[in-house]
Amino acid sequence: MAKKIYLKPTLVTVLTLVALYAGFTVFLSHPPPSVSTLSDPSSSRSLSILNSGDPKKTTVRVYMYDLPKRFTYGVIESYLRARGTPNAPFRYPGTQHSAEWWLFADLLREVRLNSPVVRVLDPKEADLFYVPFFSSLSLVVNPIRASNFGNGHVYSDEEMQQELIDWLENQEYWERNKGRDHVFVCQDPNALYRVLDRIKNAVLLVSDFGRLRADQASFVKDVVLPYSHRINSFNGDVGVEGRKSLLFFMGNRYRKEGGKIRDTLFQILEEEEDVIIKHGTQSRESRRMATQGMHTSKFCLHPAGDTPSACRLFDAIVSLCVPVIVSDFIELPFEDAIDYTKIAIFVDSASAIQPGYLTSMLGGISEEAIVQYQRELKMVKRYFEYEDVNGTVNEIWRQVSMKLPQIKLMINREKRLVKRNMTSPDCSCVCSNHSSSVGPLF
Residue span of the signal peptide, if any (predicted)? Predict the structure, then answer.
C-alpha cells in the first residue's frame, strides 16, 4: 500500500517536468520581439507591433507613397518662398486645412500606439494606398511673386495636380484597381479640382460635398473631415457664469452662393441686445477677438459660407460654445460616433432670417439645458483636436478603414461587369441633405 502511495506523486512529478520542458522549448522557438526588431523599419511585422497595442485587432494596412519631394516638403518650401520668408522655421503653416499634414506626420511616426491602421513599407502587403500630396497648401501658394522663386519660375498648383496624376498613373498599384484603393486629402473645397475626374474612384477626404458632383464623391466611398480649429480651446469647466453674451459670430459678412444668408443675418442681428456679430477676416488679431468672444458666449452662430461648412463650427465646439447651425446642406464628420443634436442646434435658413426668431428661441433655453449641451461638447471635444493622440487623426483613420469592405466589393464587381451603354453616371451614393430644423433637446 505504501508503495502505491509513493508511486502516485512520482508520476505527477514526471508529467510536470515533461510539460515544463515542452513549454520551455516552445518559448525558445518563438522568443518575444527584441528592441532591435521593434525599431527595424524594414520589418512589416515590427510595424504592426509599433502601430497597435494588439496587432490582431488591426487589419487595415496602409502604404504611404514616397512621393517626389516637390509634392510634400517642396510645397512648404514654395509657400515660404512665395511669402518672402525662405529662411523662416521650416514647418507646415497653421491653416484650417491642415489635415493633410497631420495624417502625413502620423504615418511617419515610429511608434503609433492604438492606431486603427497599420503602416506597411511593402506595397504588396497593403490594403490601401495613401497619397500624401499637400493639395490644400499647394492651392494657396502665391503664384504672383515670381522673383521669390528665382529664375523667373512661378509656382502653379494646376501643374502640380497634373504632374501628380501623371506620376501616379505610372504606378503599378494605381493601375491595378484604377485608384479605388487609394486615399487623397482634398480638404480645401477647391483642392485637386483640375484632376477630380481622374481620381474620383479613390477615397476622398473632404470637408463637405458642396462643390463635388454626385459621381465624384459620396458618403459610401468618402470621408468628411473636421477643419482644424483656429482658436485656442476652452479648458475651463462647464457653466454659464462667465458667458455673458447670448450669441456670438465673427467672420466674413459677404460670401457667395449659399453664404449670402450671412448678410441677411447681419442685418437682423446686429441691432439685437445680447448679441455680438462682427465682420472679420483671418488675422492674428481676429483670432484673438474670436477666442474671447466664443469663450464668453453661450451660443455661437455658424451660418453657411461659400461652402456649407467652415472652421468656425469647430472653433465653437472646442470653446464649449453651443453651435447654432444655419446651413441647410451641411455634412458633418464622424456622425456614426457623434449625435450632433446633443451638441448643437440646427435651424433652417427660412426660419433663421425671420426677425426675432433666433434670439427668442435661444433666449428661451434654460441654463440647465445650456450646461447639458456643454457637457456633451466636452465629451466629444477630442474628436476635433488634431494634436490629441487619441483625437482627430485616429478617428479619420478609423473612418477610412471602414471603407475597405466597400472598396473590395467595387473592385470585385468591376472585374465581371461587361461594357454597358448608360445615360447617367453609375455612381454609388447616398442621397441626403433633406435637412430640417432641430430645436433644443434639453
Answer: none
302 membership: H or E segment, kind and range: strand 297-303
Q: Which of 340, 357, 384 delimits the end of a domain? A: 384
Q: Cβ neighbours of residue 217 under 8 Å, at least 6 residues apart? A: 200, 204, 206, 209
Cell output for 338:
457623434
Helix (H, G, I), strand (E, B) or coil at 348: coil
- Whether 53 and 200 map to the same domain: the answer is yes
Residues 175, 253, single domain; the answer is: no
The domain total for the chain is 2
- Helix (H/G/I), strand (E/B), else coil: 438: strand
Residue 117 maps to a domain: yes
| pTM, rounded to two decimals | 0.81
Tens of each residue's pLDDT in the chain, 442 residues: 433 333 344 443 434 443 434 443 333 333 333 222 223 333 333 343 345 444 445 579 999 999 999 999 999 999 998 888 888 889 999 889 999 999 999 999 988 888 999 999 999 999 999 999 999 999 999 665 554 555 567 889 999 999 999 999 999 999 999 999 999 999 999 999 999 999 999 999 999 998 899 999 998 999 999 999 988 999 999 999 999 999 999 988 877 665 688 999 999 999 899 999 998 777 788 889 999 999 999 999 999 887 888 899 999 999 999 999 999 999 999 999 999 999 999 999 999 999 999 999 999 999 999 999 999 999 999 999 999 989 999 999 999 999 999 999 999 998 887 776 766 655 544 443 334 445 566 5
CB of 326 within 8 A of CB of 303?
yes
- C-alpha 185: how far from chain center: 9
Report yes or no: 290 and 189 within 8 Å, Cβ to Cβ.
Answer: no
Exposed e or buried b per residue across 46-60, where buried means at least 16 C-beta atoms within 10 angstroms of its C-beta: bbbbbbbeeeeebeb
CATH number of the structural domain spanning residue 318: 3.40.50.2000
Shared domain for 307 and 365, answered yes or no, is: yes
In a domain, 436, yes or no: no
Tell whether 170 and 297 lie within a shared domain.
no
427 part of a folded domain: no
In a domain, residue 48? The reply is yes
> Do 195 and 55 belong to one domain?
yes
One domain for residues 278 and 178: no
Cβ atoms of residues 166 and 177 within 8 Å: no
List the domain range (segments joined by +) for residue 127: 44-224
Looking at the structure, do residues 205 and 65 belong to the same domain, yes or no? yes
